[in-house]
Every structure is written in C-alpha cells, then in structure tokens.
Fold this sequence. Notes:
The chain contains 13 helices and 20 strands. By secondary structure, the chain is an alpha+beta fold. Strand 19 and strand 20 form a beta hairpin. Helix 1 crosses helix 2 (35-47), helix 5 (80-92) runs parallel beside helix 6 (112-133) and helix 7 (147-153) crosses helix 8. The radius of gyration is 20 Å and the shape is globular.
Amino acid sequence: MKKSVLRKYAHLIATVGVNVKRGQEVFIYAELDQPEFVRMVAEECYKAGAARVNVEWSDQALACLHTRRRSQKVLSTLTSYELEKWKYQAEVLPCKIYLMSEDPDGMAKVNQKKVAAAQQAKMKLIKPIRDKMEDRYQWCIAAVPGAAWAKKVFPHLPKGKAIEALWEAILTTSRVTDDPVAAWEEHNRDLHDRCEYLNGLGIRELHYTSKNGTDFRVRLMDESIFAAGGEYTLTGNYFNPNIPSEEVFTSPKRGEAEGIVYASLPLSYNGQLIENFSVRFENGKAVEVHAERGEGVLREMIAMDEGAAYLGECALVPYASPIRESGILFYNTLFDENAACHLALGRGFGGCVRDHEKYSLDELREKGVNDSIIHVDFMIGTEDLDIDATTKDGRVVPIFRKGNWAF
C-alpha cells in the first residue's frame, strides 16, 4: 500500500477520529502487525498538537500463553501498576486510539471460563474508574491488517496479497479518498439528518421482523435519542469513535424487550467465533441462546454480570451500506456491524438520553440505560428486514423496508 495513502488514513484517525487538541496526551493500543503505520499515527497526533503519545503493544499469541500458564488467581489480579495506569488516565483524560488487527480465531483454544472469570475480577476495580471517564475523553477504534486476519478474510490469496487486499478493503470502507476529511464531513451530515428525523418522531417502540424468524419488539426510554457518526465529550470536544461507521443508534430501556432475533453474520468475541445463533428475550433479558458454533462462549458472555444479558444498543444500518456491498465478510465487529442492523448486549450509552449532560451516571441508569462490564454488538440485519416504529401518539411509522431506510 502506498505510504501517501496510509498517511491520509493516519491523519484521518488523529484529526477526525480522536481529533487531538493541542496539549492533550494520547494512548495508542496496537498489536505487532503494522509498526510503521503506528508510527505514522503517532506522528500525526504530534502534528495535531499532542504533548505526549504513548504506544502500548500487545500480542495475541502472548495473551494465549499468559492465559494457559498463569493460575486463575494471578490471571484475575489487577496489579498496582495496572491500577495506577487507569487512575492516571482518569486524571488526564487522554485521547485513546485502538488499532485492531487480531486474528478472529486467535483465542479459540484457550479456556474461556478462565478468561471470563479473570475479566469479571479485574473489572470490579476498573469499572468505577472507567465510569468516571464516561463521556469525558475522545476515543477512536480503527483497523490495520494482521496476517492471520487477512488470511481469514481472503483465504485464497497468498499472505502478502491477502494483507494488501485487506488494506484496500479497510481504506475503501473507511472513506480514505482523495480528501478523507471532506468525505467524513459529508457523511456525518447525512447521518445527522437521519437522526434529526428519527428524533422528531417521538418513538416509543421498535418492531423488527424478518423471514429468517426474527420477530422482536424493544421499548425506548421516554428521553431516548438517536445518535450517529461524530459525538461530543461533556467538555465539548468533537470526535468520531468508529472508523468506519454507517450506523444510527440509540440505547433502549432496560427490561423492555420481547421476542427472538437471529444473527445474520458471525460474531468474533474474545478471539472466538460464534456462528448461526439466535437470542430470545423476555422482560428485556436474554433468556435463551442457541448457536451452531460457539454456543458455550455465547453463554459465558451473557453471564459476565447482571447487565450482560440486557440490551445496551439498537443500531440501524442499511443493507445497502458500502461495507455490505463490498461483499466482504470481515469477521470483525467494527466492520461487520456496519454491514447490517445490529443490537448490542451489555452497557448502554448515556449520550443517547436527551440532555444527558444534566444527569449523573446513576440518574441515567435509573432512566433505563443498561450497565455492564461488556458491550458486544451482534448483527441481525437482512435484505428483507422490516422495522416499524410506534410513536408516543400511537402512529406506526415505517423505518426500514426490505433492509433499507424507508425514508
């Protein structure tokens, strides 16, 4: 891939993604796959005015080794060093960039019960700190090719060509054009206008139906609003948390969902694939799950904590999105969630409550924003998906017809 194109992508992540402000600190989290590009992103952050850029490297194979070799007690312990890093970030509120490249199947052979138990133990200490950071810092998730991921997506190509093909797919769907900044400004305007329309309807409930068996109703909070694309921190800094992004989303009311949904794409969770699965809801809670592959992982996921089996997000994505039309199954939620309408189990978004800045986190949760240590998106959009909205004044308004916007 040409360095000039990669430079545009790095600039996009630094200036449109996290939108680094002068004097801010930046943390970049990356695997070992594309060190040259990570250096580009760091340089672009400095050019944007960052005072300090920190890079934290990880390695999936090493994570597997740690999981196998460490005792449950050691694996579940958050060291004082790790805890102090979280406290430091809560104090300085850095921009955080996550560059994803891991193998979708890279953790398939590890003990998931052990992993889940370790996550649960550590999050008891991390979550209160993370809650203090909620809506107060800029962050962005983007992607770069890893060799194993590229071969999963393009199994018929040699490794080098597979990596190049994945680069091309990432850059195209991320709108890295001749002028990526202008392309994102135009895209965000369209998403903003769709949110304005939806927020003007006064939606009380969404009803999803599809020929694959999906028949599902979910209630929104009285003050629910739809959001999309860029968003603001509580201090007024604008940023784009996902590159790419095609979704218009909201957080539903906890405990108000009924029916069954069938996944339309595989889900990669903690380095393991879950395929051909369904989730049935009663009183807002996932009470029954089935999967042809990865059912045990799915059950572990919804048992992570008390809120993991409840919904945190309903996202609307047209079937005609650029990612779906690319014909590529990415085996990566950042991309695949933008190829189809999806739901998320776990933590909801306080920012999806009207005038959310006026409320504390506890008050937002009292209004119905779900709380959990997880937030996991899974795709349910199909080419025949219909979605109807019932408004507060009793009207039924079509939102999706045959997988695409009905307005």
